[in-house]
Amino acid sequence: MQEYITYGILTLLLSTLFSMGGAGSGVALIPILNFLGVDFTLAKAIGLFAGATTTITSSIMNIKRKVVEYKFVFPIALMMLIFAPIGAYSSRFINEDIVKFLFMLMLFYSASMMMFGKKKALFHVQGTTALFIVGTIVGFLAGLLGVGGGNILIPVLTLLGFAPKKVAIAVSFVVPFSALGSFFTYASYVNLDWVLLFIVAFSAIVGGYIGNYMMQFKLEQKHIKKLMALLLYLLAFKLLFYFIH
């Protein structure tokens, strides 16, 4: 029981911090759970479920506010809905250390984008073909690594020249599709710990509300993102140390 309390508190803290920074906490939660003894695949499934529960609310709010540009989000959402489960199922046949190594690279990538990333477009891509391609690649990687994909999708779409506000709304809409699709795929072949799943999901929802509430105090986003980046760097270097030794 003490372990469940520990997992719940950690999830609450991570979800609060990451929601203040406008991101999902799964990318940090998964390696931390694994370091604490939770099976890596189970940790991915739990992180996905927690991420989905916290992002569904944002999706519903954006739909009600009528700010979702369906022509823009549909190609991405469709491809991520198809390819995220494929990526999740593929991880069953790929050596776990390879997946962990890719996860480590994603941590370095996400941390670097938070710490140093410039929100400037390198290209100015238009048309739906690029969106289908992005959704396919990001969806597969998200499913394989067990994340919602927002931390990969946001910088990619920004670099392709899409407006940051438009990207943020799109990502909040498509991530639940990717996360839930991947979660149900993992759930089909992983022995889930339902108590842990409930505690983590509940803590993630509460943390998300606390984080959103604290954002009203106009905290400096750049400081929050740097703190998030430092945490991701620590997790990435811990994984790197694992591979070196």
Determine the mean pLDDT. 86
Uncertain runs: none
| Spatial shape | globular
Number of strands: 0
Q: State which percent range the strand residues make up.
A: under 5%
Q: Number of domains in the coordinates?
A: 1
Report the biggest beta sheet as strand number plus sense, adding barrel if it closes: none
Radius of gyration: 17 Å
Would you tell me the structural class of the helices and strands?
A: mainly alpha
Fraction of residues in H or I helices: over 70%
Label this structure with key terms:
245 residues, mainly alpha, 10 helices
Give a quick precis of the structure.
This protein is mainly α and 245 residues long. It contains ten helices and no strands.
Structure notes:
With 245 residues, this protein is mostly helical. It has one domain. It is built from ten helices and no strands. The chain is globular. It starts with a helix and ends with a helix. 47% of the residues are buried.
List the helices and strands and how they pair.
Blueprint: H1 2-20, H2 26-35, H3 40-64, H4 70-90, H5 96-115, H6 128-145, H7 150-159, H8 164-187, H9 194-214, H10 221-244
Helix pairs in contact: 1-2, 1-9, 2-3, 2-10, 3-8, 3-9, 4-6, 4-8, 5-10, 6-7, 6-8, 7-8
